[in-house]
# Entry
Amino acid sequence: MAGKIFINYRRDDSIAIAGRLHDRLAETFGRDNLFMDVDNIPVGINFEEYLNKQVAQCDAMLSVIGPNWLNAKDETNQRRLDNRDDFVAIELAGALARNILVIPVLVDGTRMPKASELPASLKPLALRNAIQVRNMNFGSDTEQLITKMREALALRPEHTQGLVLLSWLTTAIASFLLSIAVFFAALVVFFTQSKNEAGSLAAMMAFFPFLWVGRQTLARNESVRIFGLVISIGGLLAVAAIVVSPQFFQIDLVDSSIQSSISNMSIPFMISTGMFGASWKNVASVPPGPTAGFGGRVIEILVTISKSRWLSALMFLSPSGTPQILYQLTDSMAAALALVSVQLLVTGLCYVHYRKVLAAIPV
# Structure
């Protein structure tokens, strides 16, 4: 998602829950994509112009409305919303005038203000669909809010091509990483049965980062990029070690099929490294229509593949040498087939997740 999420709130009304929302949204969208407080305004400049500039750059605004939001008064006993210098009113009016996505967040059962209760510049707010966020159900309410925000932002036509490509890339990479996590889980079982405590511990330590990064990538959580880059490069180096050392994992590399399958594992690891090393915001901002240059042609091909049900399904089945490695270690075809079955199940679940995301994007 390009741009920012602007959190509009009144300090003496909802500062606590606004702070919790900020921290939770930062985990999903990245701290750099949030603007929350007037304390961020540099000294010595026109605050109204600065706020309007920040509002103009945002893709969405959350209007946090607590029990005292509507009738809060200043030191002159005037209602703050009617004051032309009120930060809350300035920010909201700017977003509504630009037709920016404004989501009223009603705190702990606060009712939605009526148009007749609002100043003229804020009357359109009464027509915006609101969502409830309660302190007692903060986790589930916030997850619902994030889901609704993603759905609404995905409908912007200027970002649909980029969102399709980003969703496809992240889901395909998540599918591969989760399949590798399943492989490490199988190694944990094998080493445990072989009474190899060191091998079991090493496999378990590798299992958790792949599982975590895979799950966060599936959710398109950009905060996982650096860690994902580290484990992808680590996986690529491990594949290189297997190829150059016949003693690694005690695998007989004379077998050409084993050599080929292990070498093919480097391809998804290289793609994962490139994805995690790129800016997800730039990927999500790919404009619609033809793009100039070789890179633009590649993007067009990838978007075409990702829109196609059968082509995208085929691309999800990334080549992996893990079943052959497990077979060489265990000398058990049953173990290799069980690994393949679980990996196909994981890939299928990821693909179904991707199709659901794609269904929400007009293509």
Summary: Residues 159-359 form one domain. The beta strands are 4-8, 34-35, 58-65, 101-107, 131-133.
